[in-house]
Write a structure and sequence with these properties.
Layout: E1 3-7, E2 10-13, E3 18-25, E4 33-39, E5 46-51, E6 57-58, E7 68-73, E8 78-83, E9 92-99, E10 107-108, E11 112-117
Length: 118
């Protein structure tokens, strides 16, 4: 059974950095396309970006470009979201998700809270 567990969230100040981790258990992380999402208070969950099974990288969310980086450590079966120069607008619950077969993100972590104070 696939399980995803995020960690690394917390309360930080504007301009600070955080690195979120998502450990995948059950199968090698290269078996999945992986994504990071976030849900701000009162808003819908939005895709930040992700990695394909081969490790190619997408970061479509415009506000994340230049500040967020997604990487993968296959030895640790972990995907990371490095967030730099954080802004109050980045306050949200951050989730990782796995797509095993190209049909969509079927597996989700429980989320980790990131709060950025001004």
């Amino acid at each position: 059974q696939v399980q995803l567990r995020e960690s690394g969230g917390g309360l930080v100040q504007t301009g600070d950095s955080l690195r979120l981790s998502c450990v995948v258990s059950g199968r090698p992380i290269s078996s999945y396309a992986m994504g990071w999402f976030r849900q701000a208070p009162g808003k819908e969950r939005r895709w930040i970006g992700g990695l394909s099974r081969s490790g190619s990288y997408t970061l479509p969310h415009h506000s994340a470009r230049g500040r967020f980086t997604i990487t993968r450590d296959s030895d640790k079966n972990t995907i990371y979201l490095q967030m730099d120069n954080l802004e109050p607008e980045d306050t949200a619950i951050y989730y990782c998700a796995a797509d095993p077969d190209g049909e969509g993100f079927q597996y989700w972590g429980q989320g980790t809270q990131v709060t950025v104070s001004s």
